[in-house]
Amino acid sequence: MSVLVVVECDKGEVKKSSLEVASYGAQVAQALGTTATAIAVGEASEASLASLGEQGISKVLYDNEARLKEFVNGAYTKLIAAAAEQEQAQVIVLANSNIGTSVGSRLAVRLQASLATNVVELPRVEGGNFIVKRGAYSGKAFSDVVLLNDRKIIAVKKNSIEALHNAGQTAQVQSFSAQLADTDFADAPKQVIMQEQTGGVPLPEADKVVSGGRGMKGPENWHLIEDLAKALGAATACSKPVSDVDWRPHHEHVGQTGITVSPNLYIACGISGAIQHLAGVNSSKVIVVINKDPEAPFFKAADYGIVGDVFDVLPKLTQAVKELG
Amino acid sequence: MKFLVCISNVPDTTTKITFTPDNKELNKAGVQFVINPWDEYALTRAIELKEQLGGSVTVLNVGEADTEPNIRKALAIGADDAIRVNAKPTDAFFVAQQIAAVAKDGGYDVILMGKESIDYNGFQVHGMVGELLGIPTVAPAMKLDMSGNTATLEREIEGGKEIVEVQTPFVVSCQEPMCEPRIPNMRGIMTARTKPLKVVEATGQGAATQVTEYALPPKKQGVKLIDAENAGDLIRLLRNEAKVI
Ligand SMILES: Cc1cc2nc3c(=O)[nH]c(=O)nc-3n(C[C@H](O)[C@H](O)[C@H](O)COP(=O)(O)OP(=O)(O)OC[C@H]3O[C@@H](n4cnc5c(N)ncnc54)[C@H](O)[C@@H]3O)c2cc1C
Ligand SMILES: Cc1cc2nc3c(=O)[nH]c(=O)nc-3n(C[C@H](O)[C@H](O)[C@H](O)COP(=O)(O)OP(=O)(O)OC[C@H]3O[C@@H](n4cnc5c(N)ncnc54)[C@H](O)[C@@H]3O)c2cc1C
Questions:
Q1: Handedness of CA B204, B206, B209, B214 (dihedral sign)
Q2: Residue B87 within any structural domain of the chain
Q3: Distance between CA atoms of A238 and A247, rounded to whole angstroms?
Q4: Alpha-carbon gap, residue A36 to A320, rounded angstroms
Q5: CATH code assigned at B125
Q6: Residue ranges of chain B whose pLDDT lies below 50
Q7: What count of Cα atoms within 13 Å lies in the side-chain half-sphere of residue A287?
Q8: Which of these, A108, A183, A279, B142, has the minimum number of CB atoms within 10 Å of its CB?
Q9: How many angstroms separate the CA atoms of B124 and B52, rounded?
Q10: CA atoms of B144 and B163, how far apart (whole Å)
């Protein structure tokens, strides 16, 4: 019996969300009295995989096949299933990302496992039941879910678990192969197009987000959002109407029908705080609202607020960040 | 081309979520149920592709009789017929088994779903159905075009997208900006009443998970307001008090 964690890598580095996944898996392994092994997917470097020891991982499996550098659902599923069999994994932990949940849902059927996505806490065992807490109703609630089958798969929501950093620990990296056939690559991408990120931070991975709404008046004013984001090292986001009218690309739209984010800091500029918008951001640790209307509903969900004009306030904030260094 | 569109019945996005006193179920009082917003993209895109390529669009829901108004709404938007698997949708695996059984039985070429349900946020039924049928699932897709039996899709990944090509049959989970979801018109509403809605019984195994309790997020302490004149103070508070920058 062991715990298997699925680690996503990009450009040689382990993604931040996967450091959290590894730490989650290591803690589950410890509670079960076993060890945590990782299977890495994507473009990884040996050094970054070895450093997963800092997150409590003892061994990392990696298949260096070129076609696995990009996400292929069929091949990733087979690879991870083979690793789970080899390691006799009872619990598999992965990121609640498009990759993690796409693979996790296939694995659940293949391995007859119970799957919980969007998980926000370490599991607990109560009266023989293995229980996880997960987000439901698009950020409006949580639910406790019992995973009934012997095997369990857990997809961990980003930024809900603190990554461990045991300096100096290294994991042993082993090459691993799952005898993949061409048919496993049926959904291999013909082309991969990455977006340009403001401030270099992809929104789903960001731990700080500066977001603009209709109160920004038009795309020509977005430099105010971008300047603050750059100064903070934050990603940029927007409300739905802003992406609907193409002021900003659709992948920046957060909310119940967009992406759900859970950064440490979410700064909302000229956004009213409609219930569908709040659903996508209310698990952020600290929410700052800048709005000229003191009655804007967003203030009720905020930790800090400024009642004022974004065109006046934003440059002051950017200036203050630069001064603080 | 035979399209199967799976729709889930969910609380309207404006719903203020509350639970029964034992926290075991959603408090449905005053809640309006709608077609899951993501599933509207699946439905409209299937209708557009049918108009282009010929064939039929069947809508499928796993649910009890109270979901029928939304099934009729899907028929009014332009689906040809509907199937309801008469069962309480106890979890994603249970639902996936029902969808897979209907899909197999009907020999559908393209099985369309939404990206995720906005109530349980599973993001998993599509993957499970693909696995149960042994066919590819592309999730979540922002674009779906078809030429003969080949589909070209844009699959969103964190920070970008992949262009993927698959052959029928396959499963796709849809999200914006795939199409502009249609709303029913008068003629659609009239014809929907007479379109076939078949009710079938559930098959397969039971659920793999069970919800024991719901909870609402903790309430915020209340907002600390900073004077717009001294906006820079906010940055110092974020550094020294909240410790997030
Ligand atoms: C089915 C459905 C799903 C939806 N899903 C989402 C979703 O996922 N995400 C989402 O965001 N929305 C969603 N919406 C839309 C949502 O209901 C709101 O319409 C939307 O969030 C409002 O966007 P906004 O706050 O940018 O604009 P508005 O509501 O127009 O608010 C603009 C705000 O800016 C303020 N303002 C104006 N000028 C200034 C200034 N100079 N300085 C400071 N403040 C200023 C105003 O006081 C106001 O509060 C959905 C709606 C539906 C029906
Ligand atoms: C009364 C009641 C009790 C429930 N109790 C539980 C419970 O105890 N545990 C639990 O996990 N879930 C429970 N559910 C949730 C229900 O089973 C969900 O429909 C199911 O879990 C799938 O949701 P998901 O979020 O996983 O789907 P996702 O994977 O997020 O959905 C993806 C897509 O699958 C399709 N789809 C989803 N559900 C259906 C459906 N019912 N019919 C047709 N297509 C569908 C839609 O196209 C949807 O966009 C309950 C639901 C009801 C109504």
A1: positive
A2: yes
A3: 9
A4: 44
A5: 3.40.50.620
A6: none
A7: 27
A8: A183
A9: 29
A10: 10
Question: CA dihedral defined by B184, B188, B191, B196, rounded to 10 degrees?
Answer: -50
In eight-state DSSP terms, residue A123 is -
pTM of the model: 0.94
Token pair belonging to B226: 């900073």
**What length is written for chain A?**
325
In a domain, B242, yes or no: no
pLDDT at A200: 65
Domain count, chain B: 1
Residue B96 covered by a domain: yes
Q: Strand B33-35 to strand A113-119: parallel, antiparallel, or no bridges (unpaired)? A: unpaired
**Would you place residue A199 in the very low, low, confident or very high pLDDT band (cuts 50, 70, 90)?**
low
ipTM: 0.94
Contact B149, B109 (CB under 8 A): yes
Burial environment of residue A190 by CB neighbours within 10 A (0 to 12, 13 to 18, 19 or more): exposed
Mutation choice for ligand 1 from A271, A300, A314, CB with most ligand atoms inside 8 A: A271
Residue B244 lies in a domain: no
B226, closest residue in chain A (CA to CA): A306
Supply φ then ψ for residue B139, to 5 degrees.
-145, 135
The answer to whether A153 and A115 have CB atoms below 8 angstroms apart is yes
Q: Which of B173, B228, B131 is nearest to B38 (CA)?
A: B173
Q: CA nearest A212: which of A178, A187, A235? A: A235
Longest Cα–Cα distance in chain B: 68
**Residue range(s) defining the domain that contains residue B94:** 2-217
The structural domains of chain A, ordered by start, are 2-185 (3.40.50.620), 203-324 (3.40.50.1220)
Mutate to test the pocket of ligand 2, among B19, B27, B125, B210 (most ligand atoms within 8 A of CB): B125
CA of A143 to the centre of ligand 2 (A): 14
CA atoms within 13 A on the CB side of A11: 3
